[in-house]
Fold these 4 entries.
Entry 1:
Amino acid sequence: MSLRHLVLASTAVAAALTLAQCGAGSSPTEGPTPPVATPTPTPTPTPDSGLPPGMTCNPTPPPILRMHIGVFDDSGGRKVLDSKPLVANVDNYCDRMGFGSWKFCDTRPEGHPERVACDYLVTGKAEDTGRWGPTWFYGSDLCAYFPDACANHSSNQFMAVAKAKGTYEACAAEGWPVASNGTRCGTIEIK
């Protein structure tokens, strides 16, 4: 587990414990305890969940299972990495999209007119650039912190430029729906 993920998990536990303590120790003379709001589940994206104008994805894909990362272009010391979200085959989604009865699949086949919009719905927006697509990390920190090693692609957030050896990670947006047995990230080791 990366340091970033460990910090996020620790913060979540501390917040939960703090919330659990709210109202503890109150006495009957203090009046009634206000009701505790129940958390609302993260909504599943809809066919036009804030997508750029003109883009649609219907039917919407299930939540992300993981990000798949590969080398798109290898120019020796500089490699262009490409990522794509994979989704679990929920309610025969993969079969309905033409992939067959696989355990997981892409959001749409390559070249499908809704592929980009569906990938957007599964990943959300990058935390550092605000563009649709995954957030890229080098080691456990944002690529932006290591300009000599890693860079976001200039026009496609699903791509990054690897300029050094090491571990690269692409992650869907925090708070975005994730399959029950999935993860929002994918990694690749460049040697």
Entry 2:
Amino acid sequence: MAIRAILFDMDGVLIDAREWHYKALNRALKLFGFAITRYQHLVAYDGLPTRKKLEMLTIERGLPVGLHGFINEMKQRYTIDLIHRNCHPVFQHEYALSRLKAEGLKLVVGSNSIRQSMELMLAEANLVKYLDFFLSNEDVRHPKPNPEIYTLAINRLGLTPEECLVVEDNPNGVAAAKASGAHVMVVSTPQDVHYEAVMRHIRSHASGAAS
């Protein structure tokens, strides 16, 4: 069955924002002495919504639940500041999405980020115009690694999972993509996301399905 849609994660796939999330969260956590190391963030927290990260810190280190709302609010403020200063268009991503769209593929972004951050990042990166739609963690009850966000996107497109390719970079996202039943392309950094790489993956799927 032919691939008819590409579903992209955002942070670490289309936008190199993983470090921004770490810096913003840590800046907020430091106010109360609960900073985490970069290693801890990459190993345990990467790709999870902020609210989930704070729940984990409460269980693991005793972060008071009453601080969650304030820390989450400050983290989002710090993230927005970093987006304004660091987010900009990247030619290879604009080229990839424009070519894929021109070739008739549906394009969607599904992220564990909140909608405000997504809207700002995708606008600053000049990618919104290529997308059919995007989904945030506010559009689902269960964020990644639960497959809900990708299942919702696939259903909204009116396609089957076999007709969709998900591009993901971290274990939580990959788990969500695989559980949705879609095909999965795993990348390490946003630099791995370019037109030729995506088409190579699509052609590989097509040749495998035909054999």
Entry 3:
Amino acid sequence: MKIGVIADTHLREASPELASLLAGPFRDVEMILHAGDITELSVLEGMGEKRIQAVWGNMDSSAVRQILPGKRIIPAGNVRIGLIHGWGGPQGIEERLHKEFAGVQCVVFGHTHTPVLLRQGDLFWFNPGSFGGNWVSGKRSVGILNVNDQITGEILWL
């Protein structure tokens, strides 16, 4: 199973660049995970017909927060993925988020705008970075998760 992952879009409405993901890196994904800071619901509506699982982030409107949960667990093939935005500073974020999930093989998060691919024992941590841009470099990124016997990921720079 191939899953597209995006976080921190920070858009008020869908953009041509966001739509281009569907013809590019996300063209053959089975599902898209959005790890929050969507900002407005119209952003999700602009992502086409793909199955989307999303959570709200700290910069999301009240409309987004009313519709989406703050965290969720998504079954994908033979793994369970925890999806959450995150909070606080970047240092120690994995430790804070670890307390939010039990029985998952992967935690997908956003908030830091910095990509993370980290395996700690049986747990895979994945942050796709930010579609809206990294705070330091300004570079934008998304990710792909591949679910087979185990889960792996890759960061795609835009």
Entry 4:
Amino acid sequence: MNIVIRQVTLADASLLAKAQREIAIEPGLLVSRPTELMDQKFESTILKVLQDKQGQYLVAECEGEIVGQGLLEPLHLEAICHVAHLTLVVHKGWQGKGIGKILLKHLIDWAKASGNIEKIELHVRSSNSRAIALYKKMGFHEEGRLKNRVKFQDRHYADDILMALFVKKF
């Protein structure tokens, strides 16, 4: 399996939104519900990253098909702009094949080389054990836990776990 990592393009927006809508159907993986993942939001995020050149938005392709996406967005206030928020999504049917690890490694390497990113933060649901295992394997540690923060439509809850990785030594 040959995975190619490349910079996102505006033409990818609708496909990325569709992939996340498919994943959001299964409770516990994403916080967003399918109806909340609109193509226009993806377009504006992509434009912002490409124009500002502050963050990094990558996609993983296998034989021309986009199979995953990873976004690092630096926080915008001056006192916290050294921190980037991570969103990592491996598309339906491609989980467990190492795609998340490849994307995450590229994003971590980019953050280390950026000169301005010192810390990567993310939120992951306690119900997403595969993602938690990947983040721990890649050096992230739990910094906090928001109990019963995510409420599913069937009235079950999951904790929202805050994890982080320092990419610059202090």
